[in-house]
């Protein structure tokens, strides 16, 4: 939105005006928004690497597909970065450097993608309809975007758009391009490959607008926007401009017709795909990055993730559901970062004049308006009070610009006269009382080492008429008039203050009214958050103390230490325990020193005595003597820990350390896998939904595989270790057996309940 | 750490110490031992205040708190800084010491009564307080509970009346904020509590005026005993403060207000005659007895004191012809009328006080003795009339101040009547000024009364000038140099712009667009190269306004704002304070900022731009005083006659100390670093440059004396890169710049050996 306001001009300003940027001649701001024509296509694809040249690949698929992220791993064989030969892609955008992958590479990538999606079966909406991505129709754009690259982690993200096919807008179904199809209700997209599922059948009433690239630019694009705010819509690329133009003309006509009919019921009918699976959570790029980061940092987690998520045993969300704490930690630390204000003074609108007519032109954009609101609370208040009720927005801004113009020309007399006539105009010219109040409030929180205001009342020299009046250092104060001119320095200070406060609101620029309201709201919120006097005082004191300290005279402070990261917890804790025990030395365990040589009678007698004693005297308080209790307790705990340590140590020595490394690693790995699987298995009972049922099935299958492997290990191990290995494997097998048993019994119950008896079932 | 300075154990609040500080302490101790005054110049950024405080407090502990430290700062915010340092020191003192230190300021900064605080200015706060706490108001309230009083003062009074020596304030260090919160928690009035407690405090921190301005000093500081040690910190401007304390100016508005006041008072007298004639009679009798002041006034009734110095006030009975209230009023009326007639003059007149008094005597029939008693008589009358809204009676008070001063001093003053401002000859704005030229007048009682007066600052060069200006003989007068671990300051003199044309703020050059652009380019280049904060000083507000506006029109300001935020000092103190606060925020958050300020302005006076708050200061021009000012001319003439100081020398000295002061704000400790650019071709001349303090001169290389913008930029880049490297803090070998406790011990042992 741009607002042009013209005022009759007194002085001609001959500053040349820049060409205004218009319409759709730039690539959309965020390529992520380029959702593809069909729900089953990967819309976002990013590759990341860490320093060890390990590749991750993240595929984002649109919301309607059941899953959102797939991962490609090194062994899946994608390593694009080195081999792709960059060349320019036809685009109108000048800002981003693009590179396209040659067709052969596309084929391999395409098949990789297909392999991945097919294998993990996460992409097709239902198992019966496998997704096919026809390689020749894939346009693969690799964006080397500097915005997304993080130099610290050597992370480069690529984005991939896949699309292809043929668009039918008002043409007949036979593919002929010439004859008009009379249907003005909907447009259809038919992919060239009949097997593909990327069919599209959209009603025009869902389309809010259309944009197109200029004739003669490198691409013939047509963008049908569904929701201008979210940026969703369909982008079509045509082979030549004539096709695009005829299509565009038709669409424009239809849309014009539709929009001219007011009050048409706006049914939210989304084409047939909406009947698919329930919408999964939308994953933001940040969330994804965090997950990738976690995976990269923790090799164990990575292995588990690879093993289960990739093979489809667990879904992405199921996998992370049990690790919410890991993800959550980062969320609290990272607050959402908002862009601040630009340093440039936008609110200082400069009028432009064409020099021929007696007019000056002010142009206001939403950004400028927002800054004006933030910097001039009086204008903001006036807008909220006046605009819908008393005058139109256009009138308001015309008035504002009039006041600005008067201010700019420094025509104080005229300004005063006009302000006297027009009270709304006077609002803009007068002193801003809100600012004054705010200043008074803020001055109380100011750092006392800066507080020159406190000084004001402290020296009695500056009584009125005391001290030396007319001197170079004191300029005579300007007399305050009703219409006091704002000075440039005040504007500069105010602007800088607003910039520092930062952009407090998170609204789409555009509608002035909403911006104004959001600003008012955020200000109120700020006010309520202000701290009490006492806190302020404390804070001030700390500030002053910090300011006065001479750093280099201070003794060096302890450097901040990095937190300990334990690579192998088992080893660490074992050694710690050993150290602790060694420190205890050979102290005798309290349990050994008990005398056990009492006969039954003696014990009985002793008890009886005690009971009678208790009866006669009542119980002692406390019943147990604390020192004895402590002794027994410490003895016991020492005993326990030592036995555990001994056992662990023994087993380590006898079993794990003696068996070959390979077997040991395998066993450890299986153990963690089994733990993961069992956790999922048991947590999904009782089965209430079909999803859970599926999950249990999958988990059970995976467990079965591991069971097999364990058996193999047991059998394949050499004879001298067989015993130890079987000892180690035994608990795992038992745990699995228990799970299987539970599964079987549940299964039986289910079949019995449902009554759907399989063949040959006899009661 | 603890260290020994010539047998005195000094508690120092840091782990290490600079060698200069040890040296400084030694000199200071010698001055205290000798019981005389001292003049010490030590570069900024060497922890002057910390050294000073720790030595004097340790000395005072050594003498078991026999004397008080009166620490005078120029501003309230410097007071806060000093108290913060003191607090740090207090935490390093041996435990059983009961150090009581507090800051004192006006009611406006100390009051906690919300009704009183709602008033805007200082005077209205004072008046609002008096309305609630004056003794007659309180006695009225005693009979009639409807009369409002201040609950804080009442409960304070109850607590204080328990006994004169009740220690109401536990030992500790109290800033103004602490006093306020203490008062709020106890329900006591912090202002009167502080006034009461300065009698018992070991350290009192307050503003210069509380000692120098007789109007305030006679009330606040009269009880200080001789054994006090008085410190004037940042005292390079002390002569100006002294002069201002004894100067009065009268304008048309003042006289109109005074006429109004007189009418009001005469009405009041008529009313009193009708209702309570006894009170007027009682006053008359008191005046016959020769008591101009009404004996022991309640603490709340004390008002601004006599503007003349205590030694010069006559201890006689009030002359008979102004004893009666109505007679006195008619005298005042005549005086105001006479002054009005003098203001009607068309041309500038300069007169000395003797002639002026004679003229008053012949034309208005008021003799010198009556004039001398004007102030005391007015004070007495206002007390009798029980006037509480003192802020409205400011005008007549000013007239009486003038009368008393003009009749008391025959030398060192002059009366200047100007019909219009020199710079705006078309607008008639007559003003009659009584200006003091002799700085030694106001400070003389301080030197006479107190045993040791320490005057210290970062810029006291030439150090032999101050004893002459202030007319005293210091026992110690020393200028310290700074031992630097690395060259952490980089002064440069920029004489040419990027187009090799000279830059200057000389009167004929300053509005030249080429100079303005060259200055703008300089700032623009620096803004792009220097991280964090940059401070720019201009020679005056009007010049700053002009140049910033032209930069705005040229588009330079917009380019500057691409790199850093811009803040400007304005005449409005509140706005400037907020701008400074935001400036610091901008530097803290890494956005970086530029602060435009004025030499001789409020910011230049006392705000530090240390560390990242100021990596570069640019001084645009030489901050000469407005040389056409009559007052300045009269003062220069006086200086030449009395002290044989040449006009040109004094002007250069004054301009260069201001410039050095502005520039010296960037550095605070040896770990800090900063650049200073003197952007004017006149700085390259030896007579100007040599007036800079030694610690700047020693770093001003010959190669940096005649730079253009691009050369300066190159040097700045190189300097910043060098400063960013890690370095050894303690210095190496014989040239140690940071001493630990053992080092100091060794040093003193070595000194012992040589004896």
Automatic annotation (TrEMBL), chain A:
Residues 287-331, 356-408 form the BSD domain. This is BSD domain-containing protein. SMART domains: BSD. One of its GO terms (biological process) is DNA-templated transcription. Belongs to the TFB1 family. It is found in: Nucleus. It comes from Rhynchospora pubera. PROSITE patterns: BSD. Keywords: Nucleus, Repeat, Transcription, Transcription regulation. It comes from the Eukaryota.
Automatic annotation (TrEMBL), chain B:
One of its GO terms (cellular component) is nucleus. Its cofactor is [4Fe-4S] cluster. InterPro entries: ATP-dep_Helicase_C (IPR006555), DinG/Rad3-like (IPR045028), HBB (IPR010643), Helic_SF1/SF2_ATP-bd_DinG/Rad3 (IPR014013), Helicase-like_DEXD_c2 (IPR006554), P-loop_NTPase (IPR027417), RAD3-like_helicase_DEAD (IPR010614), Rad3/Chl1-like (IPR013020). It catalyses: ATP + H2O = ADP + phosphate + H(+). Its main location: nucleus. GO terms for biological process: nucleotide-excision repair; positive regulation of mitotic recombination; transcription by RNA polymerase II. It comes from the Eukaryota. Its EC number is 5.6.2.3. It is found in: Nucleus. Residues 7-284 form the Helicase ATP-binding domain. GO terms for molecular function: 4 iron, 4 sulfur cluster binding; 5'-3' DNA helicase activity; ATP binding; damaged DNA binding; hydrolase activity, acting on acid anhydrides, in phosphorus-containing anhydrides; metal ion binding. Keywords: 4Fe-4S, ATP-binding, DNA damage, DNA repair, DNA-binding, Helicase, Hydrolase, Iron, Iron-sulfur, Isomerase, Metal-binding, Nucleotide-binding, Nucleus. Belongs to the helicase family. RAD3/XPD subfamily. NCBIfam families: rad3. This is DNA 5'-3' helicase.
């Amino acid at each position: 939105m741009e607002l042009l306001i013209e005022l009759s001009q007194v002085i001609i300003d001959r500053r040349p005006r820049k060409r205004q940027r218009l319409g759709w001649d730039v690539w959309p701001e965020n390529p992520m928004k380029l959702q593809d024509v069909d729900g089953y296509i990967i819309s976002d694809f990013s590759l990341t690497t860490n320093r060890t040249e390990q590749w991750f690949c993240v595929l984002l698929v649109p919301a309607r597909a059941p899953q959102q992220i797939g991962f490609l791993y090194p062994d899946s064989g994608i390593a694009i970065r080195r081999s792709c030969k960059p060349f320019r892609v036809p685009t109108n955008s000048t800002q981003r450097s693009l590179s396209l992958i040659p067709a052969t590479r596309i084929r391999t990538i395409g098949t990789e993608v297909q392999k991945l999606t097919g294998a993990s079966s996460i992409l097709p909406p239902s198992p019966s309809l496998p997704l096919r991505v026809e390689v020749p129709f894939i346009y693969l754009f690799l964006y080397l975007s500097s915005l997304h690259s993080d130099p610290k982690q050597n992370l480069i993200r690529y984005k991939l758009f896949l699309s292809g096919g043929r668009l039918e807008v008002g043409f007949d179904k036979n593919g002929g391009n010439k004859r008009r199809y009379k249907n003005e209700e909907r447009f259809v997209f038919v992919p060239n490959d009949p097997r593909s599922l990327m069919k599209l059948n959209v009603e025009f009433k869902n389309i809010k607008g259309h944009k197109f690239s200029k004739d003669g630019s490198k691409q013939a694009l047509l963008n049908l926007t569904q929701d201008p705010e979210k940026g969703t819509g369909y982008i079509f690329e045509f082979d030549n401009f004539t096709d695009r133009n005829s299509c565009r003309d038709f669409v424009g006509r239809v849309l014009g017709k539709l929009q001219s009919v007011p009050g048409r019921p706006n049914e939210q009918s989304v084409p047939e795909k909406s009947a698919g699976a329930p919408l999964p959570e939308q994953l933001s790029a940040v969330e994804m990055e965090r997950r990738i980061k976690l995976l990269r940092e923790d090799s164990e987690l990575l292995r588990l993730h690879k093993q289960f998520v990739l093979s489809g045993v667990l879904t992405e969300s199921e996998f992370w559901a049990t690790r919410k704490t890991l993800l959550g930690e980062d969320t609290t630390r990272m607050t959402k970062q908002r862009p601040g204000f630009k340093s440039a003074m936008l609110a200082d609108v400069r009028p432009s004049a064409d020099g021929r007519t007696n007019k000056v032109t002010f142009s206001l954009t939403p950004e400028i308006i927002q800054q004006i609101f933030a910097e001039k609370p009086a204008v903001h208040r006036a807008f909220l009070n006046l605009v819908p009720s008393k005058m139109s927005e256009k009138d308001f801004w015309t008035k504002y610009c009039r006041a600005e113009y008067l201010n700019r020309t420094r025509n104080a007399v005229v300004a005063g006269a006009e302000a006297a006539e027009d009270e709304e105009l006077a609002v803009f010219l007068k002193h801003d009382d809100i600012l004054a109040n705010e200043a008074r409030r803020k001055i109380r929180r100011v750092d006392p080492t800066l507080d020159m205001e406190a000084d004001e009342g402290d020296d009695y020299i500056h009584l009125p008429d005391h001290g030396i009046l007319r001197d170079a250092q004191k300029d005579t104060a300007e007399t305050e008039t009703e219409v006091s001119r704002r000075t440039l320095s005040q504007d500069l200070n105010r602007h800088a203050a607003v910039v520092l406060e930062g952009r407090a609101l998170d609204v789409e620029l555009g509608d002035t009214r909403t911006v104004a309201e959001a600003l008012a709201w955020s200000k109120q919120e700020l006010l309520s958050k202000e701290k009490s006097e006492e806190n302020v005082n404390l804070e001030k004191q700390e500030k002053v103390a910090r300011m006065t300290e001479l750093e280099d005279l201070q003794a060096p402070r302890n450097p901040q230490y990095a937190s300990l990261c334990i690579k192998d917890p088992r080893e660490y804790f074992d050694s710690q325990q050993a150290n602790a025990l060694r420190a205890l030395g050979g102290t005798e365990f309290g349990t050994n020193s008990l005398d056990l040589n009492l006969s039954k009678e003696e014990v009985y007698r002793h008890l009886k005595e005690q009971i009678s004693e208790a009866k006669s005297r009542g119980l002692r308080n406390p019943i147990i003597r604390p020192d004895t209790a402590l002794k027994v307790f410490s003895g016991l705990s020492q005993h326990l820990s030592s036995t555990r340590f001994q056992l662990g140590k023994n087993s380590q020595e006898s079993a794990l350390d003696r068996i070959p490394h390979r077997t040991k690693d395998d066993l450890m790995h299986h153990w963690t896998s089994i733990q993961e699987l069992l956790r999922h298995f048991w947590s999904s009972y009782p089965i209430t939904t079909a999803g859970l049922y599926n999950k249990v099935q999958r988990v059970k299958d995976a467990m079965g595989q591991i069971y097999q492997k364990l058996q193999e290990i047991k059998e394949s191990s050499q004879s001298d270790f067989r015993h130890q290995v079987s000892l180690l494997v035994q608990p795992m097998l038992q745990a699995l057996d228990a799970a299987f048993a539970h599964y079987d019994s549940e299964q039986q119950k289910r079949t019995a309940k449902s009554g759907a008896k399989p063949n040959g079932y006899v009661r | 750490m603890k260290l020994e300075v010539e047998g005195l154990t000094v508690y120092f609040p840091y782990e290490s110490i600079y060698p200069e500080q040890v040296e400084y302490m030694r000199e200071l101790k010698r001055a205290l031992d000798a019981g005389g005054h001292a003049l010490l110049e030590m570069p900024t950024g060497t922890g002057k205040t910390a050294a000073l405080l720790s030595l004097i407090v340790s000395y005072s502990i050594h003498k078991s708190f026999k004397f008080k430290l009166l620490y005078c700062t120029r501003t309230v915010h410097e007071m806060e800084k000093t108290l913060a340092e003191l607090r740090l020191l207090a935490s390093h003192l041996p435990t059983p010491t009961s150090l009581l230190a507090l800051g004192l300021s006006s009611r406006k900064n100390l009051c906690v009564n919300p009704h009183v605080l709602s008033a805007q200015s200082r005077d209205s706060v004072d008046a609002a307080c008096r309305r609630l706490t004056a003794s007659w108001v309180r006695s009225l309230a005693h009979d009639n509970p409807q009369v409002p009083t201040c609950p804080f003062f009442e409960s304070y009074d109850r607590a204080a009346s328990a006994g004169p020596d009740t220690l109401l304030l536990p030992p500790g260090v109290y800033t103004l904020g602490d006093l306020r919160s203490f008062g709020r928690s106890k329900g006591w009035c912090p202002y009167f509590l502080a006034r009461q407690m300065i009698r018992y405090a070991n350290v009192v921190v307050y503003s210069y005026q509380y000692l120098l301005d007789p109007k305030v000093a006679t009330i606040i500081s009269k009880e200080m005993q001789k054994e006090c040690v008085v410190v004037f910190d940042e005292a390079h401007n002390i002569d100006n403060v002294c002069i201002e304390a004894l100067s009065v100016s009268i304008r048309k508005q003042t006289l109109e207000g005074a006429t109004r006041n007189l009418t009001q008072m005469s009405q009041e007298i008529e009313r009193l005659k009708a209702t309570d004639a006894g009170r007027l009679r009682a006053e008359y009798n008191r005046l016959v007895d020769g008591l101009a002041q009404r004996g022991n006034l309640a603490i709340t009734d004390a008002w601004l004191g006599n503007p003349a110095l205590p030694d010069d006030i006559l201890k006689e009975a009030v002359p008979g012809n102004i004893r009666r209230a109505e007679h006195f009023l008619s005298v005042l009326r005549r005086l105001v009328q006479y002054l009005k007639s003098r203001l009607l003059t068309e041309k500038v007149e300069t007169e000395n006080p003797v002639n002026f008094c004679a003229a008053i005597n012949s034309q208005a029939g008021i003799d010198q003795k009556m004039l001398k008693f004007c102030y005391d008589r007015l004070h007495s009358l206002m007390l009798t009339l029980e006037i509480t809204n003192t802020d409205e009676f400011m005008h007549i008070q000013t007239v009486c101040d003038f009368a008393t001063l003009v009749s008391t001093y025959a030398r060192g003053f002059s009366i200047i009547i100007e019909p219009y401002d020199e710079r705006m000859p078309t607008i008639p704005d007559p003003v009659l000024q009584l200006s003091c030229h002799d700085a030694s007048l106001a400070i003389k009682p301080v030197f006479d009364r107190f045993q040791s007066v320490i005057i210290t600052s970062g810029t006291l060069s030439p150090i032999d000038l101050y004893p002459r200006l202030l007319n005293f003989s210091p026992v110690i007068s020393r200028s310290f140099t700074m031992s630097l671990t690395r060259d952490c300051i980089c002064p440069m003199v920029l004489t040419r712009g990027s187009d090799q044309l000279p830059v200057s703020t000389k009167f004929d050059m300053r509005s030249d667009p080429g100079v303005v652009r060259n200055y703008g380019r300089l700032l623009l280049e620096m803004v792009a190269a220097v991280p964090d904060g940059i401070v720019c000083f201009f020679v005056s507000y009007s010049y700053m306004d002009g140049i910033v506006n032209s930069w705005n029109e040229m588009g330079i300001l917009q380019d500057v704002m691409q790199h850093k935020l811009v803040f400007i000092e304005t005449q409005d103190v509140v706005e400037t304070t907020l701008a400074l606060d935001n400036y610091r925020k901008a530097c803290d958050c890494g956005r970086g900022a530029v602060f435009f300020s004025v030499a001789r302005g409020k910011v230049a006076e006392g705000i530090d731009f240390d560390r990242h708050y100021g990596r570069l200061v640019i001084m645009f021009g030489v901050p000469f005083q407005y040389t056409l000012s009559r007052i300045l001319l009269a003062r220069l003439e006086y200086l030449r006659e009395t002290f044989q100081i040449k006009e040109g020398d004094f002007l250069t000295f004054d301009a260069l100390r201001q410039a050095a002061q502005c520039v010296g704000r960037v550095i605070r400790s040896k770990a800090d670093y900063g650049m200073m650019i003197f952007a004017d071709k006149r700085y390259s001349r030896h007579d100007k440059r040599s007036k800079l303090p030694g610690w700047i001169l020693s770093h001003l290389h010959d190669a940096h004396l005649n730079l253009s913008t691009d050369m300066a930029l190159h040097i700045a880049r190189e300097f910043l890169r060098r400063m960013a490297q890690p370095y050894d803090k303690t210095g190496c070998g014989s040239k140690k710049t940071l001493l630990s406790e053992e080092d100091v011990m060794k040093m003193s042992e070595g000194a012992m050996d040589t004896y």
